[in-house]
Amino acid sequence: MDASWLDAVKWDRDGLVPVIAQEVGSNDVLMFAFMNREALALTAERGRAVYWSRSRQRLWHKGEESGHVQQVHEIRLDCDNDVVLLKVTQLGHDPSIACHTGRHACFFQKLDGAMWQTVEPVLKDPERIYK
Amino acid sequence: MDASWLDAVKWDRDGLVPVIAQEVGSNDVLMFAFMNREALALTAERGRAVYWSRSRQRLWHKGEESGHVQQVHEIRLDCDNDVVLLKVTQLGHDPSIACHTGRHACFFQKLDGAMWQTVEPVLKDPERIYK
C-alpha cells in the first residue's frame, strides 16, 4: 500500500491524532477519540471506524462490544494536518447511539450558568448494550 | 466566581482540553483547538471563543487579528469530561471563514484513494485577512 498519505499526518508525541466523528445527514458531532497510524490505515481500508483506546492501549474497533459500528463515508484532514474529521453513519441502533452511556452523542452536558446539565436522553441502558 | 464547573473538566497533562467549534445552523465543524482553564473561563464569561495557542504559548482571542470572531451560544462537555464542544456563530465574513487559510472550515482536505485532495475554496486571500 502506498502510505504516503499517512506520512502527511502530523502524529503527536504519542503517535496519535485526534479524531472527530460527525454524523452524515444530521451533521451532529457524535464523539471524539484518537487514532494511531494503524487505526487510521484500517479505517480507510475497511470503511469502518477503528480508534486507538488510550485507556486500554490497544486498537478499538468501534462497535466491537456494543454493535454500534461506524460506517465511514469521508476522511478529512485539517489545515495543520494534525486533526482528522470522519463523516460517518452510526449503525446498530435507531435512533443512532455513539456514546457508551447509551446516548446519541457524547456531548450531552451543557453549561448552564455555572453548572453542567445533562440535556440528552439515554436511548438504551448501557447494561443492555454491554452485556 | 464559582469555578467548580471548571474543576469538573479533566485537564490533560499540559493543563489543556481539546475543543471542537461547530457552527450553529449549518452544524459544520469549523475548527479544532485547545483551551486552558483561563481560556475556557473567559469564553464562558464573554460569549466569545478564547483558545490557548500551543505554538505561541499564550491566550488566543479568536479573531484578534483576522476579525473572524466566534460568538458562543453553547458550551458542551463530553461523557468523559475531557473534550469541549462549542456551538458558535462565525462572525467577520459572509460566507463565514473560520480557517486561517481563508476557508470556511479547517477540514478542507479529503482522502481520495491514497491522496489528500483540497475540496473547499478559499473565500478570502489570507494576505488580505492578516495585513
Principal-axis shape of chain A equals globular
Distance between the termini of chain A: 38 Å
Q: Radius of gyration of chain A in whole Å, from Cα? A: 15 Å
Fraction in helix of chain A: 10-25%
Strands across the major sheet of chain A, in which order? Answer: 2-1-6-5
Total number of strands of chain A: 8
β-strand percent of chain A reads 35-45%
Structural class of chain A: mainly beta
Oligomeric state as shown:
homodimer
Low-confidence stretches of chain A: none
Largest interface chains and counts:
A-B, 39 and 39 residues
Name the helix and strand elements of chain A from N-terminus to C-terminus, one letter apiece.
HEEHEEEEEEH
For the sheet with most strands of chain A, the description reads:
4 strands, mixed
